Amino acid sequence: MALIAFLVVVAAVALMGSRFRPDSWFEALRKPSFNPPKAVFAPVWAVLYLAIAVSGWRAWTEGGHAWTSALTLWVIQLVLNGAWSWLFFGRHRIDLALADIIALLVAIIVYIIAVASQSALAAWLFVPYAAWVAFATLLNASILVLNRHRAAARAP
2-150 in CATH: which number? Predict the structure, then answer.
């Protein structure tokens, strides 16, 4: 049952984030040459969200079903994850989204370190997530640089 609860929480965050999608504003932005095709994002995130949920569940079970600092970090990274889509696609704030994703990457790394002593599996499940978010951070920063004139543009 706990695994289902973790899956539901992560699915809820993913669903909230999916409300903010690329639109004509995003299409008009200049993007770096390494920007992946749209078709890459959904399958990558589906796998990562599953790993995020299983990692949280493992942290919970290996932590003796107690609230630990690792679980607090897990929640923090999930909130930051959900906020990014709203900031970038919803508010069109490339600059604030960059600040958010940097904080997200830090939270992911700190979570990996914190949870490793409880569950190696929980820590390893976050490694691909850390790699993807590091790439996404570079992508977000590149889009900011290429579109400085739009960096602080507000959504209509």
Answer: 1.20.1260.100
Q: For residues 70 and 63, give the distance between their C-alpha atoms in angstroms, rounded to a whole number.
A: 9
The span from the CA of 5 to the CA of 39, in Å, is 28
Distance CA 49, CA 107 (A): 16
The set of residues, in sequence order, having a beta carbon less than 8 Å from that of 105 and lying 6+ positions away, is 130, 133, 134, 137
Helix spans in the chain (H): 2-18, 24-28, 38-62, 69-85, 94-116, 120-125, 127-146
The SS3 assignment for 138 reads helix
List, for residues 74-95, the tens digit of each pLDDT value. Answer: 999 999 999 999 999 999 999 9
Domain ranges of the chain: 2-150
pLDDT tens readout for residues 12-40: 999 888 888 888 999 999 999 999 998 99
Give the predicted TM-score (pTM) of the model: 0.90
